[in-house]
Design goal:
There is one protein chain. With about 120 residues, the chain is mainly β. It contains no helices and eleven strands. The strands form two sheets. Strands 2, 4, 5, 6, 9, 10 and 11 form a seven-stranded mixed beta sheet that branches. Strand 4 and strand 5 form a beta hairpin. The chain is globular and about 45 Å long. About 30% of the residues are buried.
Length: about 120
Amino acid sequence: QVQLVESGGGSVQSGGSLKLSCTASGFTYRRNCMGWFRQAPGKEREGVAFINRDGSSTYADSVKGRFTISQDNTKKILYLQMNSLKPEDTAMYYCAADGGSVYSWARCADYIYWGQGTQVTVFS
């Protein structure tokens, strides 16, 4: 079955950097849309960054210019490089994937696979 395992979270001072990793296994289709979400205590989960099947990426306005999503298709690892971190970036970060497709042009579907999350804490 599909497994997504995040790592790389931790505590960092405001202005610092962290790099999250998500190791994926068990996918049926070669092309999955993948993304990073986060949820802070008392707040709704929000999408942070996404990689589409064609390799293009999108970001939430709150992280544009600071976060970079990338993937190593050979190793099946998704990354999130986070720079210039702010206290408001503090949250549990989750890696997620949709059901996949054989077509690079297919739109992303619902994210149905989720990792267990990794905590990011930014202190001022």
